[in-house]
TrEMBL record:
It comes from the Bacteria. The keyword ATP-binding does not apply. It comes from Megamonas hypermegale. This is Undecaprenyl diphosphate synthase family protein. One of its GO terms (molecular function) is ditrans,polycis-polyprenyl diphosphate synthase [(2E,6E)-farnesyl diphosphate specific] activity.
Amino acid sequence: MDKLDLNKLPRHVGIIMDGNGRWATGKGLIRTSGHKAGATTLKNIFKTCVNLKIPVLTIY
């Protein structure tokens, strides 16, 4: 993030959460572990949006 132009960030980021279960089963894990990993990633994305002052985050 050191090279981001903070004047050119979006005001709205949209993310479609898809594939977490497939990711887990592809690694030999149960599907719910993929959903938990996706939730952890989503928390990191949320914190990043807050830190970058991106006012709208849509998750579907």
